[in-house]
Recover the amino acids of this structure.
């Protein structure tokens, strides 16, 4: 019984797929009606696939927990002795806005079709940053799988364990992206401006005036107030540790009313002034040389009695400009396409330079310090090629030292255009320099094909096998067909072509 069923099934399969006298050497698998059925199936898969086929992303929309992702990130940081990240609602809002923007505009990248940048969303959320970063993931079904995939990627891991970051914000959004249901995870990092070491509360030292008995008896006998030393003055401005980029300074402070205040730089007298209302302001006429200075003051009253010395204020005068020469600046293109170019600007400057800013067509980009020992700053930015080629294009690098001295260097459009070939895309490898905004994309679609793509590929293989069997057996049996009998050949070729087109995936 089973043998008969097997033989019958084998006969039917042969009749369907293999040219044979029983099917007139025209198997049912390549007949016009069957090819029409194939076409209907392809249309159903590719036009209705989103609704008819299961989606990887739908499996775990509710399973990706932003809070757990934060905990996992902090576990990694704690293991390395790094500070934990705290959730900042502004970064959460920025991540959510970025996710919705990608769904709305159908793109999957750090930069949108109109040049939208990650930091654009961070700033729009009201978060002013020193450092910022972004990780993206797509089509994952669980929290742990997202985190593990990020940690397995060097660029994503670098963001998670970057020591400078203090805040984090994560959003998970679900929607239609390029016709497919998907889950996007946006992880944003940041360090707000001014959040270096916590400021310590300044300590105040009370200076009590010491009295003297000199001439006290005469004063009492004459009915005058007793003669006492004035209290020691206190210098308020400048403050100890200040680095000043001007050779002329103004010294302000508090002193007993109507006393003469003498201000000194070490043992050199800088100037004198009578305190009024308990306040003095002395502006020395002489210039102070570059270097360290120790300021102090004394007060002398109408009895000729002089106070003890005030608090000492140590300052540093620095009027020299930071060095920024041609050899200190390098520009490399890291990615080029017909519309945009990614450029990495690198500045190597003086030891005391604290910041470097790139200004392009009026827009400022703060460069990140990527090497504190060598004082190296770098940043990658995205520019429209058409903007670079305009007559009014302008760009300059501004470096500022600890004293606030600035040096500016103009960058010509020829300097930038000379770093890449407009007609060449993606030809220069990233040199590995740190970015002011660290960006990393992880797309499960790069690792796994969608269900629709898998079915398309399998269908292509099926059509190729059917087509090949038909041709092989016709050739083997030396059977000939007229033109009408091979009308299915161009139809099959066309069907394979459109199926292959629909099977193609996205590459970032």
């Amino acid at each position: 019984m089973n043998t008969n069923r097997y033989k019958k099934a084998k006969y039917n399969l042969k009749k369907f797929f293999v040219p044979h006298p029983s099917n007139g050497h025209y198997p049912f698998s390549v007949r016009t009606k069957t090819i029409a059925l194939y076409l209907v199936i392809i249309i159903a898969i590719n036009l209705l696939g989103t609704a008819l086929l299961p989606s990887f992303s739908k499996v775990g929309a509710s399973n990706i927990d932003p809070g757990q992702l934060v905990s996992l990130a902090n576990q990694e940081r704690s293991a390395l002795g790094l500070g934990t990240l705290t959730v900042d609602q502004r970064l959460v809002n920025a991540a959510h806005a970025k996710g919705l923007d990608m769904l709305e505009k159908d793109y999957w990248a750090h930069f949108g079709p109109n040049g939208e940048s990650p930091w654009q969303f961070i700033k729009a959320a009201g978060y002013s940053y020193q450092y910022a970063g972004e990780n993206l993931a797509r089509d994952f079904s669980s929290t742990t799988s997202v985190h593990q995939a990020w940690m397995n990627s060097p660029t994503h891991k670098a963001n998670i364990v970057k020591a400078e970051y203090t805040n984090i914000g994560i959003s998970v959004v679900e929607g239609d992206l390029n016709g497919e249901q998907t889950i996007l995870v946006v992880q944003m990092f940041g360090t707000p401006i001014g959040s270096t070491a916590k400021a310590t509360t300044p300590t105040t030292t009370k200076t009590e005036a010491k009295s003297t008995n000199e001439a006290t008896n005469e004063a009492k006998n004459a009915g005058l107030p007793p003669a006492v030393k004035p209290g020691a003055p206190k210098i308020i401005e400048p403050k100890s540790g200040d680095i000043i980029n001007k050779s002329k300074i103004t010294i302000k402070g508090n002193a007993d009313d109507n006393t003469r205040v003498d201000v000194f730089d070490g043992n050199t007298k800088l100037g004198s002034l009578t305190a009024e209302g308990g306040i003095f302001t002395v502006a020395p006429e002489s210039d102070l040389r570059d270097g360290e200075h120790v300021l102090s003051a004394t007060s002398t009253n109408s009895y000729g009695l002089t106070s003890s010395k005030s608090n000492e204020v140590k300052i540093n005068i620095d009027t020299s400009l930071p060095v920024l020469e041609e050899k200190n600046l390098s520009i490399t293109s890291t990615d080029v396409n017909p519309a945009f170019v990614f450029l990495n600007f690198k500045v190597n400057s003086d030891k005391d330079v604290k910041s470097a800013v790139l200004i392009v067509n009026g827009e400022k980009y703060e460069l990140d310090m990527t090497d504190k020992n060598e004082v190296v700053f770098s940043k990658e930015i995205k520019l429209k090629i058409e903007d670079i080629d305009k007559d009014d294009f302008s760009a300059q690098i501004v470096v500022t030292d600890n004293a606030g001295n600035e040096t500016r260097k103009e960058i010509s459009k020829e300097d930038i255009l000379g770093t890449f070939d407009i007609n060449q895309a993606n030809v220069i490898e990233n040199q590995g320099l740190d970015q002011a905004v660290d960006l990393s994309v992880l797309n499960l679609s790069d690792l796994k094909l969608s269900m629709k793509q898998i079915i398309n590929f399998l269908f292509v293989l099926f059509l190729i096998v059917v087509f090949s069997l038909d041709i092989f057996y016709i050739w083997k049996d030396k059977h000939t067909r007229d033109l009408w009998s091979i009308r299915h050949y161009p139809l099959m070729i066309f069907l394979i072509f459109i199926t292959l087109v629909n099977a193609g995936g996205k590459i970032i």
Q: What stands out?
A: The two ends are 56 Å apart (CA to CA). The longest strand covers residues 180-192. The CA atoms of residues 137 and 173 lie 11 Å apart. The longest helix spans residues 451-476.
